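== Fold encoding ==
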Amino acid sequence: MHQVRRGVLMLLMVLGMSAGRAVAAVATGQAAPEFTAVDTTGTERSLSQFKGQFVVLEWFNPDCPFVKKHYHSGNMQRLQETYTGQGVVWLTVASSAPGKQGHLTPEAGSAIIAQRGSRQTALLLDPEGRVGRLYGAKTTPHLFIVNPEGRVIYAGAIDDTPSADPADIPGAVNYVQRALDQAMAGQPVSLAETTRYGCSVKY
C-alpha cells in the first residue's frame, strides 16, 4: 500500500514537473504583470496597490499532497507569518477551475484559512486561470517574489526537496526564505529561478 501511495505521489510530481525547469511566462528580472482578482472576502486586490512592498505569490490547491505537506506541518503558515510580520504582502492564489480538484468558492476558501491557521495577506480566487496563466504558474505550490520596484526576483519551488513527506522539511533548503532574506537585506538573490514541483495547476 505504501509503495502504491508513493507511486501515485511521484506520478503527480512528474505531471507537475513535466515541462522541466521552471520557466515562468514572465522572466525573473522583468516587470511583474499587473492583475486584479477578488479574494475570499469579496475584496478586489491588484498587484499595483502593493507597489513599494515585497510581494509573494503562492499557487495553492488544498487537495494537492505537496501543498498538504507544507500546510499540515505548519511550514507554509510559519513562512507567511514571519514575512507578513516584516511588511511582506503574501498573496495565495487558487487557480483551479470549477469542477476541478482544488476549486474554491469564497466560503470554502475562508473555511480553509480558518481551519489551517493560514497567515497570508489574502487568498485570491482565480477560477478562470487568468492570473495563473499570466505568470505561467505550473504547479501547486509554485511561488514568485516581486520586489518593491515591481520586478520578479524569484520564481520556482518553495525548497530543494521535491517530496510530499513533511519529514523532509527540516533538512530542506527553503528557496523562498533565502531569496526574501537576501532581497530584504539589499543583496542580490543568489538563485532567482528553481525547478518547481507539485501537482499541476488544474486550469
